[in-house]
Specification:
420 residues; mainly alpha; 4% strand
Length: 420
């Protein structure tokens, strides 16, 4: 393959490409190491990593296809993605496939996927379009927040019912997009105050409605409730038990004695802590993890704990550094865009990936409540891996095809910047 062919494939920002390459490399190594429970079940130690590598290849293919689409065409798909997200989110609430007590999956033409993953991208597209369309010389028009709220009202509550953490991370991303989009400070202040009131109200409702039972008991309760044909209230708040258990667990006594820890009830958190504590700073070496055999989601939600156990502080820092580079490099790409839509879209997608990665890391080291958030582009996943690759492809497309700010030819020449 000659250099010309390679340049036609690897279009766009080369630093983003390098970050993607290293994330995939870390992913393949760590998924192979952390999938011991899956290899035990299948009897084939190569099957999980080969499947994951195949998904990364498919994701890379869609990423290359996406980066060859000019960024101006992404506006066209926004209404269709919003409509599709709304329909599939309703579908998953009514007839979704349940995993660990949460209905997050649906099957379409034999393909299983989480509608919330697509809905996140649709929301970022919509918010970027609203902010770009309503920019003035003094910042975003005051009506922009109203339109963003209207779009959020149709999508975010539907995500929240089955995946509270995903809805919260999406809202954080949208908030930062509004900050970047120069929404008036007075409106942002009111939004923060209103959000705090809502959070307190939701937490109070969860603590009132939910029962802090062990996960095994929750699963049995869910099964019994399903048999009894749950009513509307039970259907809407069936995740309250899990949410309350995680809140109580996170806010509980941090100075427990080792003999007081119930490895059956708090297995994930306990074994993640053991993995980090036994890393001895320098790590045990790739493939030498002990806790992967005890962590039920070692290859997904807690893969960062396995990375620390095997590669130590250096490996943990390197992975975090890759996401930081992704965010700041995307910021540089956005800053060079003459038009606002590609700039807001690129930053929104980068924030979406990085906030999820940050939250996953905080969970792994015990600084956030346990949730089901995988580490983007590293954790073993299904369609979420492909969708994250598409998000990176959109950023690469913007770096390649978005109109750049013109440089002044002389000292007295001022470039004209579009606000469209």
């Amino acid at each position: 393959m000659n250099n010309k062919t390679l340049s036609n494939i690897f279009k766009g920002d080369k630093v983003i490409w390098m970050v993607f390459f290293f994330l995939c490399l870390v992913s393949i190594v760590e998924v192979y190491s952390a999938s011991s429970t899956l290899t035990y079940k299948t009897g084939n130690y190569l099957a999980p990593v080969l499947k994951h590598a195949g998904l990364l290849i498919v994701g890379a293919f869609f990423m290359v296809v996406t980066l060859n689409i000019k960024c101006k065409f992404f506006k066209i798909v926004t209404p269709f993605m919003l409509l599709g997200s709304f329909i599939t989110l309703i579908w998953v609430l009514i007839a979704g496939q349940s995993t660990n007590g949460a209905q997050r999956w649906i099957s379409l033409v034999g393909i299983q996927f989480q509608p919330s993953e697509i809905a996140k991208g649709a929301m970022v597209l919509a918010v970027a379009q609203i902010l770009s369309a309503m920019q003035t010389e003094k910042g975003a028009d005051k009506r922009a927040m109203k339109y963003i709220f209207i779009v959020c009202a149709f999508i975010v509550p539907l995500i929240m019912l089955e995946n509270l953490s995903t809805a919260m991370l999406l809202c954080i991303t949208i908030f930062f997009m509004m900050v970047i989009g120069r929404i008036p400070n007075s409106q942002l202040g009111k939004l923060i105050g209103g959000t705090l009131i809502i959070i307190v109200s939701v937490l109070a409702l969860v603590m009132l409605v939910g029962k802090a039972e062990p996960e095994s008991a929750q699963k049995n309760l869910v099964e019994e409730t399903v048999k009894e044909e749950p009513g509307i209230f039970t259907k809407l708040f069936h995740r309250a038990d899990t949410w309350k258990a995680r809140i109580v667990d996170f806010t509980g006594d941090k100075n427990q004695k080792p003999e007081d820890i119930d490895l059956d009830k708090d297995g994930q958190k306990a074994h993640a802590n053991i993995a980090i504590a036994t890393s001895s700073i320098i790590g045990k070496g790739p493939g030498n993890s002990d806790e992967r055999d005890f962590l039920s989601q070692a290859f997904s939600d807690f893969i960062y704990a396995i990375i620390i156990e095997e590669t130590g502080i250096e490996g943990a820092f390197f992975v975090a550094f890759l996401y930081i580079v992704l965010l700041f490099r995307t910021g540089r790409i956005a800053n060079k865009c003459e038009n606002n839509f590609p700039a807001f879209l690129a930053m929104g997608l980068a924030l979406l990936l990085v906030t999820q990665a940050l939250f996953n890391m905080l969970v792994a080291v015990g600084l956030a409540p346990v949730t089901g958030q995988p580490l983007p582009l590293i954790s073993k996943g299904g369609t979420s891996t492909i969708i994250n690759c598409i998000y990176v492809g959109i950023i690469l497309s913007i770096s390649r095809s978005a109109k750049k700010k013109s440089e002044p030819l002389e000292e007295n020449v001022t470039p004209q910047i579009s606000t469209i």
